[in-house]
């Protein structure tokens, strides 16, 4: 009998949130921003995602076409690299989505029959509680987890759910000791090829804290790949405006130093134990998108501000890095 998500047979009381947890309101707010933007772009046909509607309500506010195109390129870029990793490992692997917010990749991969051995998500405990609330109450989200779970009991509390193929964990990524402890309880396997995804997350930590997390990953996993999407070229005027806009919303880009250039992004990866590292800015990535897809999305909305789109795209980048895995061909993965 599969476990039920509404009435968990085994219940473990939640751990108290870390003291830092209360100081990160602005950073947690970025989860709302990202999911609202994705929800809007999906609603007008940029890409297909039948699950995001269960996590985010559509608001009346329209997002600008340049924002939607930016999100399209971001989601496309991350998905392409992730699927290349899944192909190379034949899905015999684990994925860690760090700072996952309301990400829906697990459900979409299941529909495509591309699930890894286990898919983990990590975010602040408060965000995880919100996500778990939706998962518990919406059958299109809970059913796939239950279906894949062959045992009687599902381990669940306010900040954690552990099942056979999916786990979500409330933890602060800046504290790798606690993070590791929680992941171990959810049966992370350090011997399995491991993909870590950080989509707009590392920039909210100081360079030391993100380096610590990245070193932890290369020290822990024998074979690993990282996909990191975040800001770049932040030293110029446009970058300064981006920083100020976020600061006004109480959100500090503590890691902006590492986002100075493509070189500084690459350097961070190579100095934290990754053996190969590649970076492209999103304008370059946009120019490499499949032509048919570009024609399709560019016909969805009229874009007036071409220059603004270019400036935005030049201030974000997609990075990927590998450690080990030559026999699998991980080093050959490229966008
Ligand atoms: C911009 S949102 C991106 C969410 C998701 N990756 C996406 O692209 O849709 C950043 C996410 O990282 C999480 N985050 C930032 N710093 C974190 C930390 N130190 N520990 C755990 N989660 C963190 C935030 O709570 C938020 O959900």
From TrEMBL:
The lineage of its organism: Eukaryota, Metazoa, Chordata, Craniata, Vertebrata. It catalyses: [phosphatase 2A protein]-C-terminal L-leucine + S-adenosyl-L-methionine = [phosphatase 2A protein]-C-terminal L-leucine methyl ester + S-adenosyl-L-homocysteine. It comes from the Eukaryota. S-adenosyl-L-methionine binds at residues 74, 99, 172-173, 199. Belongs to the methyltransferase superfamily. LCMT family. Methylates the carboxyl group of the C-terminal leucine residue of protein phosphatase 2A catalytic subunits to form alpha-leucine ester residues. GO terms for biological process: methylation; negative regulation of protein-containing complex assembly; regulation of apoptotic process; regulation of glucose metabolic process; regulation of mitotic cell cycle spindle assembly checkpoint. Residues 1-29 are annotated as: Disordered. PANTHER family: LEUCINE CARBOXYL METHYLTRANSFERASE, LEUCINE CARBOXYL METHYLTRANSFERASE 1. It is an enzyme of class 2 (transferase). One of its GO terms (cellular component) is cytosol. This is Leucine carboxyl methyltransferase 1. InterPro entries: LCMT1, Ppm1/Ppm2/Tcmp, SAM-dependent_MTases_sf. GO terms for molecular function: protein C-terminal leucine carboxyl O-methyltransferase activity. Its EC number is 2.1.1.233. Keywords: Methyltransferase, S-adenosyl-L-methionine, Transferase.
């Amino acid at each position: 009998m599969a476990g039920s998500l509404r009435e968990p047979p085994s219940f473990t009381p939640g751990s108290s949130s870390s003291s830092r947890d209360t100081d990160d309101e602005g950073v947690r707010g970025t989860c709302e921003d990202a999911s609202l933007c994705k929800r809007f772009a999906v609603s007008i046909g940029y890409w297909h995602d039948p699950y995001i509607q269960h996590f985010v309500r559509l608001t009346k506010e329209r997002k600008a076409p340049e924002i939607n195109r930016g999100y399209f390129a971001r989601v496309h870029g991350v998905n392409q690299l992730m699927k290349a990793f899944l192909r190379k490992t034949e899905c015999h692997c684990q994925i860690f989505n760090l700072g996952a917010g309301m990400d829906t990749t697990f459900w979409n991969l299941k529909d495509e029959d591309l699930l890894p051995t286990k898919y983990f998500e990590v975010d602040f405990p408060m965000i995880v509680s919100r996500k778990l609330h939706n998962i518990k109450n919406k059958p299109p989200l809970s059913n796939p987890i239950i279906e894949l779970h062959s045992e009687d009991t599902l381990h669940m509390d306010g900040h954690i759910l552990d099942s056979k193929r999916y786990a979500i964990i409330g933890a602060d990524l800046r504290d790798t000791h606690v993070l590791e402890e929680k992941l171990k309880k959810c049966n992370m396997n350090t011997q399995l090829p491991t993909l870590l995804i950080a989509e707009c997350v590392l920039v909210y930590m100081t360079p030391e804290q993100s380096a610590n997390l990245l070193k932890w990953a290369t020290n822990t996993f024998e074979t690993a790949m990282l996909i990191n999407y975040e800001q770049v070229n932040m030293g110029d005027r446009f970058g300064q405006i981006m920083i100020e806009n976020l600061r006004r919303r109480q959100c500090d880009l503590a890691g902006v130093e590492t986002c100075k250039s493509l070189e500084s992004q690459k350097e961070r990866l190579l100095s934290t134990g990754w053996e190969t590292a590649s970076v492209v800015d999103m304008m370059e990535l946009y120019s490499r998108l499949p032509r048919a897809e570009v024609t399709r999305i560019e016909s969805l909305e009229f874009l007036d501000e071409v220059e603004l789109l270019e400036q935005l795209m030049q201030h974000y980048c997609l990075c990927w890095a590998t450690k080990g895995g030559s026999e699998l061909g991980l080093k050959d993965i490229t966008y």
